[in-house]
Amino acid sequence: MINLPKTLGYTAIQISAAALTWMWCAIVRYRFNTEHPTGVGSAMANFFWEFAWLGVVLAALLGGALILSDLKKWQRFYDWVFYFGIWLMVVWVGSAVCAMETPFVGRLSLDGRHF
């Protein structure tokens, strides 16, 4: 029931999605720093700007566990890693989408400055 080519394809997609999210966060950080050189951004955006690379590492670890479980024919572990990886990427990329929008939402300080 387990199929190595599908496992490798899924792993490649998951690592690619995490790497693209990491690059996108870096681009948004550059854009934010260009438009708002004295701005600090939100806490959520700062987390993803600093730690978006963790998604790539986690996707690679999950991919390795998926490949191992495929080679060893551990069906239950394979299913668990597969679905955990799907939901983790949904949450990770969804959180990154929200986080990259928050620094551009206008906030006014007490003296009326933007950001």
Uncertain runs are: none
Number of strands: 0
Number of domains: 1
Spatial separation of the terminal alpha carbons: 54 Å
Number of helices: 4
Fraction in helix:
over 70%
Q: Supply Rg.
A: 18 Å
Beta-strand content: under 5%
Q: Helix and strand succession? A: HHHH
Please explain how this structure is put together:
This protein has 115 residues and is mainly alpha-helical. The protein has one domain. It is built from 4 helices and no strands. Helix 1 packs antiparallel against helix 3 and helix 2 packs across helix 4. The chain is elongated and about 55 Å long.
Draw up the topology in text:
Layout: H1 4-35, H2 43-51, H3 53-72, H4 75-101
Helix pairs in contact: 1-2, 1-3, 1-4, 2-4, 3-4
Short overview:
The protein is an all-alpha fold and 115 residues long.
Descriptive labels:
77% helix; 115 residues; mainly alpha
